[in-house]
Amino acid sequence: KIKPSFQEILDITRCAICLETVRPEIVQCVNGHLLCGECRQGLKDCPTCRQPFSTAELSLVLRQMLDALPKRCKYTNCKIYLKHADDHEKWCGFQPTSCKIMKCNWTGPGRDILSHLQGKHSTVYVLGESNEHLSITNFEFSSDHISRFSPISAHGQFFWIEQFCDFAKEMLTITFYLVPNSKPIDDYLIDMSFTSKDSFIGSKFKFDFEQNKVKNSVFVPRHCLPSFVDEKKRLNCKLFITRHQRDVSIAET
């Protein structure tokens, strides 16, 4: 008996536009019909009764009740219902992303990026967890060197590597970006190194899931680069991504 009553409450609190439980900033019309603040944009009247919107604030009890109700994930095609303070949307595989391959205009759910690459960019090599011999081809450090991206599929997660020549700082910056598909349960240790007969530069760090660009980057000074570029203009390096069980006591703080 409780379940049908609860479903009735969910039906009453549905937005007339998206048909999901209303989301902040919630607005109502003079007759009390509710809409999500985002869905209300561009509307002059309530789509249910064609009456104007009210400027009155929702009552405290109604706001508390709406906050307590589970809400469906905001991303299209995701059917997960969220509890209060749930961080599912941060990691949802249905949130939109774009392909970083040059001249590709594809956008779609993050969970589909790997299948997109395999279907539309079959000649693009997707890196894995272990890359003993990784080369950045046609490498040249110049002020007009645009960002280049390489895809990585490692331990069930998808990353982009961006290579950017920072001319102002005289530095090659290599940054790792995660495309969310589901909430990671492990930590990922990234180990990248450049080696030549006379030089070595290495960087090992734990990937920062808050996507802090500085923390997720490797920096190679410009004056060191000639040692690692061969006669075919290939910048050679090694890259390994290993998975480690997360320390729950630290992760939850």
From TrEMBL:
**Which GO terms of type biological process are on file?**
proteasome-mediated ubiquitin-dependent protein catabolic process; protein ubiquitination
An annotated GO cellular component: cytoplasm
Residue ranges the record marks as coiled coil: none
Q: Which GO terms describe its molecular function?
A: ubiquitin conjugating enzyme binding; ubiquitin protein ligase activity; zinc ion binding
- Kindly give the Gene3D superfamilies that the UniProt entry links to this protein: Zinc/RING finger domain, C3HC4 (zinc finger)
Keyword Zinc found: yes
Q: Which SUPFAM superfamilies does the UniProt entry name for this protein? A: RING/U-box, TRAF domain-like
Describe the location of the RING-type domain by residue ranges: 15-50
The record's keywords, sorted A to Z, are:
Metal-binding, Zinc, Zinc-finger
Q: What is this protein's record name? A: RING-type domain-containing protein
Species of origin reads: Graphocephala atropunctata
